Each structure stands twice: as C-alpha cells, then as structure tokens.
Amino acid sequence: MDFGPHLLLATLEGAVTAAILALTAMGLSIVFGVMRVVNVAHGEFYMLGAVIAWFIATSLGAHPAIGFVAALLLAPLAVGAIAAVSDRLILSRIDYDPERTIVATIGLLYIIQQATLMTFGPDARPVEPPFNHRIALPWVEWGDGGLALYWPWGLSITSYKLFIIGAAAVVLTGIWLVMTRTRFGLIMRATQQDREMAMVFGVPVDRTFAYVFGLGAGLAAIGAVLVVPVQQAHYLMGHDPLLLSFIVVIIGGLGSLPGTVIAAILIGMTDGIISVFFSPTLAKIIATLAVAMVLVFRPQGLMGKASR
Hints:
Layout: H1 3-35, H2 42-60, H3 64-91, H4 98-120, E1 134-136, E2 139-143, E3 146-150, E4 156-158, H5 159-181, H6 183-193, H7 195-200, H8 205-227, H9 239-252, H10 257-277, H11 280-297
Antiparallel strand pairs: 1-4, 2-3
Helix pairs in contact: 1-5, 1-8, 1-9, 1-10, 2-3, 2-4, 2-8, 2-9, 3-8, 5-6, 9-10, 9-11, 10-11
C-alpha cells in the first residue's frame, strides 16, 4: 500500500481519537473554568461510563443497537449523578480549596477504581457496536493520465468509527449552545467570572458547582460510551484519557472551550498519524514535549488569557 492510503487511514483514525479526546477534555476544561478545580478523578469517571455502558448493554440482552442507545442515554446520567453527589459530599465541604481538592480527587480516583475492581472484576469486557459495516476508502492519485480515483482492496474503516466523529461533533455543538444560549450557561459564565458577585445576585453557587461537576463527568462518560465498542471496558482504562485530557487543556488554555477543541484536534490527529506510521509511545512523547513548549513560550495556552 502506498503512502497516500496509509495517510488517509491514519488521518481518519486520528479524527476518531480527536473526537473522543475533545469530549473528555471538554469536561475537564468546563470544571476547571467554572469551579477552578483540577479534577484528578476525571479519568475514573470516563472509566465508570464505559463500565456502566457494558452493564446496561449486557443486562438488556436485546439488539446491540437498543443496548447501545440505552447506555448512551443512561450511563452519562448515572456518572453525572455520582459526580454531583461527590461534589456535595467532598468538594463543597473543603470549600473548593485548590490544594485540598487535588488531594480529595486523588482519593476519589482510588475509591472509584477499587470499587469498580471489586464489583466489575479485572477482566476487560467488550460491548458490541450497534452497527459495524466496513466502508471502502477512496483516495485521489495523480498519474500520467491526470487525477485518478481509487478504491483499494483492504483499505476501509468501519461505519461506527465515522459515527463517533459525527456524534462527538453534535455533542460539542450542543455544549456550545448550552454555554452561550441558555440561562444555565449564563449562570455558569457569571460564576466563572466572579463567584462572590454571583452569590450577591442570588445565584445558587454551590448547586451550580454540583451541576457543573456532574456535567464534566457526564461528558467524559459520553466519550467512554462511544469508544467502548472499539476499546473494551476495564477498570484501568482511565489513565490515558486523563493524561491526554490534561495535555489538551494545558495546550488549549485552562478554561478555554475553543482552545480545548483545537488542542484536541491537534493532539488527536497527531496521535493517530504517528501511531500508524511509527508507534503510540512516540505519539505520547511528542504530546508531552508539546506541553513543555507551550508552558515555556505561552504558559496561558493557545487561547487562554494571560493572568494580570
């Protein structure tokens, strides 16, 4: 197979990675942007979404499409509710102090992980995709007779992976509309700008924080539900998404939603292309070096605001 088909396939795989990463990192960015909380347990909420999706899909015992739709609707709600309760029981009691919230979310990470291990077990569990047709991928090549379009044998991608990209775009668009066009989004932005002033004007800040923490965890869970038919659910699957989400948020700018999406696309596409042509380890090394470069030359990130 020539370089062109390889590059096309790597780009599509990178787009799938970018879509999941954008959802996961968006949840982390929203939580930090509004609450100023570094949620170290964010990857475990991702893992919890995948595990709950497996439980729902296998418990129904119906057609894979029915189980997947039920998991896509119920798993993010369940994870969001768990996160909101965790906020009320833990984070609000320490008044969202930056240092103590890091320690608290580390403890929450281990609680969720070990509780999942005891109930779910150590084995990886698959979830059957709702549809999985293979689609041949064409590419254009310049030859002696001009441009030629090819459908090579063996070069294809599943329809479900294309669905992941589309579904992530729809969810991210919905989040943007919520943030910019709804009363809840206005309350979130007001709380982000000035927590004390928002309280003076009657905004229920503690309740808003619980909703925001639940929303961030729910977005991670949506990403996990979408990816679990491609990657099996297991109790240690939250480590890489957490690391990559932090990389994306730092590069994009802490609390910047557009920056998060742009950084997720850059990191996801780079990860996909380098993983296909070289190795996944090299992709992680390059992403880490990118963070170091951003911290040195633009500490506020690509679209973050410099502190005054």
